[in-house]
Amino acid sequence: MLRSGLAERGLPSPDAKSRFAEDRMLAATIWCELRPGEVVTEADIMERFALSRAAARAGLTRLGFDGWATSKARMGWEILPITGQLIGDVLKARRIVEPGLAQVKLCDGAQVEIAQIETILTALMRGGDQTALSSIRHHVDRIDGLLLGAMNPFTARHLRKLWHHSARITHYLEGDSGTLFRRDDVFDLIQAILQRDVAGIEKARLTLIAAQERYFLHQLLKNDAPLQPGSGLAARNQQENAVSNRRPS
C-alpha cells in the first residue's frame, strides 16, 4: 500500500508514512470500519490504527479533501453518512460515466487474462461453496481493474471513486444481514469483452448498475435504522426553511 519509495537505509520516508495512513483510512472508510456518520478524532484514529498524530491528521485531512469526511468544530471529523440521496447520486453518475468502459481497447495480454479468469470463475461458481465468494469477488474486481486501466485516466479517476462509493454502500447494507450482493453480469461481460462487443459491454455495465440499485432498495426496505439528520426530506425542508427565513419581508 505504500505508494512512494523507501528512504535511505530502507526505512519508509515521512511521505510514505503519510501515504500509508491515507490509504489505510480510505480502505477503512470503504469497508465501513469507520462507520458512516461516525465522528472521530485524531486520538481515536491514532489508537485504532496505531498511527502517529501527524499520520492520523494527514489521513483525516485527505478524507476531508476527497469528500469522505467533514470537519466538525471542536468535535472531530464526521465520516460521510450514507443517505438515499447519496445512493441515487452515485448510481446516476455511474450511468453516465460507466458505459465509457465499452470503448476501451484492451491489449492481447489483458484479453488472455480475462479468458483465464472466465475459466477460474466457472470452476468457483460450479462448486457452490459459499467460502469461495471472496475469491469470486477478487477475480471479478480484476476484470473491472483491467477495463479501468485501459480507460482515459481522467475519466478513470472519477469512475474509481464512484466504485469506491458503491462498494462502501454495498458493505454497509450487507452488514450482518446474511444477504450478500452477487454479480450476475459477469459472464455476459466477459463474453462481450472477448468478442470486443461494444454494445454488449455497455449493456452488461448498465445491467450491473440496475442490479445494484435493486439490491440497495431491497436492503434499505429491511433496515429499521431511523433516518439521520441531513438526509432525505428532513434536509430538504431545512434548506427550504433557511431560504424562506433569508427572504426580505
Q: Which features does this protein show?
A:
about 250 residues, mainly alpha, Arc Repressor Mutant, subunit A, 3 strands, about 65% helix, globular, disordered N terminus, disordered C terminus
In short:
64% of the residues lie in helices and 4% in strands. It is mainly alpha-helical and 249 residues long.
Would you write up a description of this structure?
- This protein has 10 helices and 3 strands.
- It is mostly helical.
- The protein has 2 domains: 69 residues, Orthogonal Bundle (Arc Repressor Mutant, subunit A); 139 residues.
- The chain has a 3-stranded antiparallel beta sheet.
- Helix 5 runs antiparallel to helix 8 and helix 7 runs parallel beside helix 9.
Largest sheet: 3 strands, antiparallel
Say how many strands there are: 3
Number of domains: 2
- Average pLDDT across residues? 85
Through-space gap between termini: 57 Å
Radius of gyration, CA atoms, in whole angstroms: 21 Å
What is the tally of helical segments?
A: 10
- How helical, in percent, are the residues? 55-70%
Briefly note the structural class of the backbone: mainly alpha
Strand order across the largest sheet: 1-3-2
Low-confidence stretches: 1-8, 233-249
- Broad shape: globular
